[in-house]
Structures are given as structure tokens and as C-alpha cells.
Design a protein that fits this description.
The complex is a heterodimer.
Chain A: H1 2-17, H2 32-44, H3 46-64, H4 70-88, H5 94-117, H6 125-163
Helix pairs in contact in A: 1-2, 1-3, 2-3, 2-4, 3-4, 4-5, 5-6
Chain B: H1 3-30, H2 35-113, E1 118-127, E2 134-137, E3 150-153, E4 156-164, E5 169-173, E6 180-185, E7 191-196, E8 202-207, E9 219-222, E10 234-242, E11 249-256, E12 265-269
Antiparallel strand pairs in B: 1-2, 1-12, 2-5, 3-4, 3-12, 4-5, 6-7, 6-9, 7-8, 8-11, 9-10, 10-11
Helix pairs in contact in B: 1-2
Classes of the chains: A mainly alpha, B alpha+beta.
Chain lengths: ~160, ~280
């Protein structure tokens, strides 16, 4: 379980720094490690969400060249919070999960912005929101929906094979 | 300690640890002079990971580029294959049309040279088993065809009509085992009969006393004496003479002048002529 968590987190980060760049639409790219974190938090609870978010964020910080620890912190907190909420709220429906992913991305962006304000980050919130956070949130939502469809198809196929 | 609070404690302890580590990292990096050794420690920890990720990044990019290249080449290959197939079919059709054109030109040239009425026909069926060797041509009763009508190609004799139907005629080939054609050696005028053999070959049967002068390469033509074939239609060339000793008849194995397996268009000789036609069958048709 720990190995699969590590592999998924690492795979998401590597994909983020490689393949995802080619999927850029109007300059917006999805945050794949964050989607992976959300997926793990919903499936495996707050601890897995926290660790996955921390590792993914740390790796992104390291490869991104910014302050190491910012994304590690925000993603870990987001993963933990979602893991907790997933156990208490009804988040099983895709109609909740996809908009939830969009809102969560926005929340993580705001948290990151707030944290960076402590270190005198120069960009304004409105510009950041319009150019980075919202496009990425929408992209994450679309990607999340695609992932849900893929997971649903895979599970259906597995169920069919079990019946045979 | 009860189990549920312990789990909850561990859960929040994990979160607090993570937050503290992150804050520590941030503090180390942002504290002016404090960056020194701590930053180095961070660098020592992160640089190998960064290098590894960069390698993975480049590898993934190369893999992705390779995949795209392969996909592009693959689809291009499919298009080119289809194009190649289309061009090959087109080329074959052109070659086929050219060959047919050449055949028809030869047939037309012969038809214009011949001093008797003819009718062109197309082969629409073949019977090439050992029992009978025949062609079916698309000329029949409606075209005025009768049995015994000679059938030729620009190279020489093919056979004769043995059955006439409303839209088609059956032509008995010279190499049919039941076929017999009165013939002479063109060079010596020695007379004999051309017979078909079950194996598909033809032979010239002649009386021994006449066979002295027959040599390989001699052209055998129709004699015109049986009232069926005009005089001088090439039938075959002598390949070898079989000496039967004191037998009354000797045989010469012939190579037919017409390639029966490839005949596609023929001329049916509907008229008669007393003229020796051999001079009209030039070697080039």
C-alpha cells in the first residue's frame, strides 16, 4: 500500500513535469499531483492524503525552483482535510466530486497565496486567480471527470471478468 | 488509551509533523544568513531527487516524442501503403490494357491481310482437362457460325468449332486428343496429320518414306485438302523426329505456334479461299 502510494505520487509528479506540459490549453495546465492527492485522500483517508500531498508538493517545490515547502504544506493540508471530509460527507457521487475538485483546487491556491504572502510574494490575487488558479481548477475538474470515467470503466470491466 | 483517540492522535500528529517540517524548510530558506548550512542540507537532500526527476522528465519527454513520432510514421505508413496499393492496381490495369491493345492490334492487322471473311471473337471459357481441350468463344448461331469453322490467332491455327450454341461456340483445340488436322511440312510439302495427345502436346504423323527430309525447326502448316481449313495456316514447329524403325508411320513432336493457355481473342474464318495463307502469318504477327 505504501509502495503504491509512493509510486502514484511519484508518477503524478513526473507526469506533471513531462507529459502534462504538452496538454497545455491556452497556457493552463492541470495539477496532476494534486488530482492524485485528492484521489488518494478520498480512497484511503486523511493520513494517505496528507503524506501524498506532502510528497507531491515537496517534489513539485524541488523541481519548480521556488520556496521548498510551500506546496508541500498546502497540498498536505488539502489532502488531510479532504481525507477527513470524505469520511464524514457524502462525496461518492461524481456530481459532488468534480465540482469539489474544482473548489478544492481554488482553496489550495488561496492557501498557497496566503502562505506566500508571508514571504512577500509579489503577484496580486486577482491576476493570480484569473490567470492561474481558476483555469487550473477547471482543468483539474475536467481531468478529474475523465479519471472518474476511466476508473468506472475499469471497475466495470473487472466486475465483468469476475462474473465469467 | 482507547483505540479511536489513539488513531485520531496519530492522525493529527502526522499533520502537525508535516506542517512543522514545511515551516522549518521555509524558515531555513527565508532567514537571510540562516540559509547557509541548512540550505546546503536541503540541497544535498533535494539535488539527487531533482536530478533523478529531471532524468525521468527527459526520459518521459523522449518517450512521448518517440510515441508521437511513431504514431505519425505509422499513420503516414498506412496512407502510403494505401497509395502504393492503388498505384500498383492502376499500373497493373494500364499494363493489362496495353497488352490487350497489342493483342488486338495484331489480330486486326491479320484480319486486314486475310483474303477471306472473318469474325473476331473473345474467349469466355476454357476446358483444359486431359479428356478434352477446348475454348468457348462468344460467337454463336446468331453470328452465322457453323461447326468446322476454323479458329486462328495471329500466330496460327487454334482449332475448329465443334459445337455451336445461340450465343457461343465451343472450339476444339489442335492439341485435343480427338483433334486431327491435315497438314504438310512447309519446306518439303511432305503430307501428314497433326494429332493431339492426352498430355497436351501435338505430333505430326507422316509416312516413313516422306520423313527423310523433316528436321527440327520445320514449320507444319495446314494442307487445305480436307475442306475444313484453308491452306497454309501455321500449326506448329518440329521439335524432334521420333524414328520408329520399320514402322509405316513416323512421328514428329511439334511445338504449337499458338499458346493455347493464353489465347484471349480469336478470329473465326467464316469464308473460304484457295490462296496459301502461310505468307500472311509473319513472325511478328
Amino acid at each position: 500500500m505504501r509502495l503504491s502510494l509512493l509510486l502514484m505520487t511519484l508518477g503524478g509528479t513526473v507526469a506533471q513535469t513531462s507529459v502534462v506540459q504538452t496538454l497545455s490549453v491556452g497556457g493552463a495546465t492541470p495539477d496532476l499531483p494534486f488530482v492524485v492527492t485528492v484521489f488518494l485522500a478520498l480512497r484511503r483517508g486523511p493520513e494517505a492524503g496528507c503524506v501524498a500531498g506532502f510528497l507531491a508538493g515537496l517534489l513539485q517545490d524541488v523541481t519548480g525552483g521556488g520556496l521548498v515547502g510551500v506546496q508541500a504544506l498546502t497540498k498536505a493540508v488539502a489532502g488531510f482535510a479532504l481525507g477527513l471530509a470524505g469520511g464524514r460527507l457524502r462525496v461518492g457521487s461524481p456530481l459532488v466530486q468534480v465540482p469539489g475538485l474544482v473548489l478544492l483546487t481554488v482553496g489550495e491556491g488561496l492557501l498557497r497565496f496566503g502562505l506566500l504572502q508571508l514571504f512577500h510574494y509579489p503577484a496580486g490575487l486577482s491576476a493570480l486567480m484569473a490567470d492561474v488558479i481558476l483555469p487550473q481548477a477547471l482543468y483539474n475538474g475536467i481531468l478529474g471527470a475523465a479519471c472518474l470515467v476511466a476508473v468506472g470503466l475499469a471497475e466495470a470491466a473487472r466486475a465483468r471478468m469476475t462474473w465469467r | 488509551m482507547p483505540r479511536v483517540p489513539l488513531v485520531r492522535f496519530r492522525r493529527y500528529a502526522l499533520l502537525m509533523s508535516v506542517v512543522l517540517v514545511c515551516l522549518l524548510l521555509l524558515t531555513i530558506q527565508t532567514r537571510g544568513g540562516g540559509m547557509g548550512r541548512a540550505a546546503d542540507v536541503v540541497s544535498i537532500l533535494t539535488t539527487p531527487v531533482q536530478a533523478l526527476l529531471t532524468k525521468a522528465h527527459r526520459g518521459a519527454l523522449a518517450l512521448w516524442a518517440g510515441y508521437r513520432e511513431w504514431k505519425s510514421a505509422w499513420s503516414e505508413n498506412l496512407v502510403l501503403r494505401a497509395e502504393n496499393e492503388r498505384l500498383r492496381v492502376g499500373s497493373l490495369q494500364v499494363r493489362e490494357a496495353q497488352t490487350e491493345n497489342a493483342r488486338l492490334r495484331r489480330l486486326l492487322a491479320l484480319r486486314e491481310r486475310l483474303p477471306l471473311s472473318t469474325l473476331a471473337g473473345e474467349v469466355i471459357g476454357r476446358e483444359s482437362g486431359g479428356w478434352a481441350r477446348a475454348l468457348t468463344v462468344n460467337r454463336g448461331l446468331g453470328d452465322g457460325i457453323t461447326t468446322q469453322t476454323p479458329v486462328i490467332v495471329p500466330d496460327g491455327l487454334v482449332g475448329r468449332v465443334v459445337r455451336v450454341r445461340p450465343g457461343a461456340s465451343v472450339v476444339q483445340l489442335v492439341n485435343d486428343p480427338a483433334s486431327t488436322v491435315g497438314a504438310v511440312v512447309h519446306r518439303t510439302r511432305a503430307a501428314g496429320l497433326v494429332e493431339g495427345e492426352p498430355g497436351g502436346a501435338i505430333r505430326f504423323k507422316f509416312m516413313a518414306r516422306d520423313g527423310v527430309g523433316i528436321i527440327p525447326g520445320d514449320l507444319i502448316v495446314t494442307s487445305g485438302q480436307g475442306q475444313v481449313f484453308p491452306k497454309g495456316l501455321p500449326v506448329g514447329r518440329v521439335v524432334r523426329v521420333e524414328d520408329k524403325g520399320s514402322a509405316l508411320f513416323h512421328f514428329a513432336v511439334l511445338a504449337p505456334v499458338a499458346d493455347f493457355a493464353r489465347v484471349e481473342e480469336v478470329l473465326l474464318l467464316t469464308g473460304e479461299t484457295p490462296v496459301d495463307l502461310v505468307a500472311l502469318f509473319r513472325k511478328d504477327g
